[in-house]
Amino acid sequence: MPAPRWLTRLSSALALGAALLGASVAAAETIEVTDLAGRVVNVTRDPSKVVLSEGRQLYTLAMLDRDDPFKRVVGWGDDLIQNDPGAWAKYLAKFPQAKDVVQMGNPYAADVSMEKIAALGTEVYILDLSNYFKAQETGLLAKLEKAGIATIFVDFRQDPTRNVLPSVQLLGRVLGREKEAAAFADYYLRQTRRIYARIGAIADAKKPLVFVERAAGLLPCCATFGPFNFGRFVEEAGGRNWGSQFFSAFQAQAAQEKVLADDPDVYFLTGANWYGSNPGSSPVSLGYDATPEKVQKELAALMQRPGFPQLKAVQGKKVMAFYHQFYDAPYYFVAELAMAKEFYPDLFKDVDPEAVFKEFHEKFLPVPYSGVFWAKLQ
Question: In what residue span(s) does the Fe/B12 periplasmic-binding domain sit (predicted)?
Fold first, then answer.
């Protein structure tokens, strides 16, 4: 005997109510994670309102929320807009709603505004590990906790060769993008391990000595890296980083006279389009909006500074400029591939770093590849 119509309607209503309740519970699911500062944090999984302390954290968010990297971002630092205008223009053209994201200012210029973060209804605040002690000292962490705003620390700058993978996996869990994070992990390991497999047995004595000038044309010569970030990139690619001999810090200032006297085998420098934020600078403006002709002109000019034309690296055309933002991006390994190919062309003759970066855009990023991200002095 068929059930009465009123009972069928009641059952359907109850089922719908249960489904809606289940969906609400799922949407508000809280998970426990350990961030890159080693803190155990309870955080809402798949939050709808996130604040990025640094705009360049978008490089990673774009991989995880590829369909719309801005859909959950309600506030961010202005460093991407100021320091990578080519990337900003490219993302803004694809996602015009990005202009509505509230700018939180320069994350390095002043303490983060707790009031601003709270007013945005922030569920998760993503902070760089380099600001961990500052956030403690200013009381920001305690204030965020009291306001019920979860804070997680990630690291794409201080020690990226160790921390990019756990940072992406952490964000994947928090944002409900575990599948995307796992796909990145596979690709990342495939690219980084093939470098190690080819150069891991090379003795240090046979490796080239490399000087890396940090933000050439923007900072005074010769800002450089210790055994971290670009300094570590050089080492993982099979070179000896000049700065690692003298400095234990992330970054340092080397005396130009000492660098010139040591006459490194290879000279690297980092550059980006800083002309808008620093009009008086003269960098190699690498990035999405760069052109080969302009890059070569800028690179050649920097190598004409007093004393530089006499360097054996300059005379032998063993000079390369790299996109500065690799130092804060999950795809830094592309720079390592280009370095390794420069150091050992025979070992990497089958590797095309630009093809890898193009493929990475096609597989993981919502915007197409364009521009110039490294260049060799011609």
Answer: 49-351
Tokens matching residue 305: 């500074």
Q: Are residues 248 and 335 located together in one domain of the fold?
A: yes
Contact 230/214 with Cβ under 8 angstroms?
yes
We report the CATH number of the domain holding residue 228 as: 3.40.50.1980
Are residues 335 and 233 part of one domain?
yes
Residues 283 and 164 in one domain: no
Using omega within 30 degrees of 0 as the cis cutoff, is the peptide bond preceding 222 cis?
Answer: yes
Q: Helix count (H) and strand count (E) of the chain?
A: 15, 14
DSSP structural state of residue 141 = H
Q: How far apart, in whole angstroms, are the C-alpha atoms of residue 347 and residue 125?
A: 43
pLDDT-based confidence at residue 108 (cuts at 50, 70, 90):
low
Would residue 190 count as lying in a domain?
no
Mean pLDDT score, 120-127: 96
- Average model confidence (pLDDT) for the chain? 92
21-51 pLDDT, tens per residue? 444 444 579 999 999 999 999 999 999 999 9
Please give the pLDDT value at position 19: 47
What is the per-residue pLDDT for 4?
Answer: 52
Q: Tell me, yes or no, whether 193 lies in a domain.
A: no
Burial of 197 (0-12, 13-18, 19+ CB in 10 A): exposed
Token code pair at residue 97? 């709603």
For residue 140, the enclosing domain spans: 26-176
CA distance 109 to 247: 26
Give yes or no: residues 258 and 161 share one domain: no
The answer to whether the CB of 300 falls within 8 A of the CB of 377 is yes
Per-position DSSP letters for 9-51, written without gaps between them: HHHHHHHHHHHHHHHHHHHT-EEEEE-TTS-EEEEESS-S-EE
pLDDT of residue 24: 44
